[in-house]
Amino acid sequence: MRSILFTLALALVAPSAALAQQTVAAETQAHELLKQSRATIWDETKSKPLQSLSINASRRFMRRERQAEVEMTLEALFPDKFLQTDALYTGVGFGLTTMRGVNGSKAWFSSESDDTAADAAKRAQAGVPPESGSNQSGGRMSAILGELGGVAGVIPPEQSTEQSIHAGFARLMLVWLCATPSSLPVEFTYAGQAVAQADGKKADVLNVTGTNNFAARLFIHPETRQVLMLSYKAGSRNRGPQETSANATESEVRWVVSDYRKVDGLNLPHQLVIFLDGRPIEEVTIKKVKINPSLKPNKFERQEIVKEPIKMKKKR
Questions:
Q1: Is the Cβ–Cβ distance between 281 and 152 less than 8 Å?
Q2: Where are the domains of the chain?
Q3: Tens digit of pLDDT for each residue in 221-248?
Q4: Which of 72, 85, 108, 255 is 20–30 Å from 97 (CA)?
Q5: HSE (side-chain half, CA atoms, 13 Å) at 28
Q6: Are 196 and 203 a contacting pair, CB within 8 Å?
């Protein structure tokens, strides 16, 4: 009897030990791959530490009736402070600005539109067509920039606004710097190889998991060690921005990066295209990059957006 029990115990322990070894091997391989990838982005043996970053870019949304282009500014004070400002101007007297910030463990969102009744009257006086600055237009633009996670038409998998903001910056840092903010620590495991390019070539794949059910897959070129793509599951709105999460269907979101350029030692992809179930819905193009700019910590505290006064045209 003892012999039988001992044999059964070995049968149970052996698979568990093998699984543990596989997990350790996957984590070790992932860390080595990350080390190589980060070295291609920023080689700290040749450069001073990357302490801060400022990026100016344009965002172009491609799912709407009218394609909208937004000017984006991203500022980062590593390891846990981030600020994204999106500004949209559709005509004289109408604009919308949103801000997303991470300050340590805290995250916040702020927005401001000048689409008020008083401003509408001023635009009419200035000769601006009503459709370019109407409440309907303001609502449409608010829907574009105000969606959680910052991706138009996508319902984020996170449960709250704060979680969504943290996760949004984490995804952006993963495709740009192969890392995440310290406020959202993650674990990497090697998942093997999969096709990630139109030419059918395979990429090394890392599974990325973190708090609040954060999950993504990172695709890295097997030779250059540059990040090619990040993918994750989320909901999508089929009927419009007012559709509830309950009516949304699960979709695959892919962030594909390209056009790598070196700026003062930082090898950064200057093109990001976001796909929803294979269809492009957003494009981000980097215009200007500043390495280690002087940024004060209080810049990342919650801010209220100050509305700029509308400039009136003088009648002749």
A1: yes
A2: 52-300
A3: 999 999 999 999 987 665 444 444 455 5
A4: 255
A5: 6
A6: yes
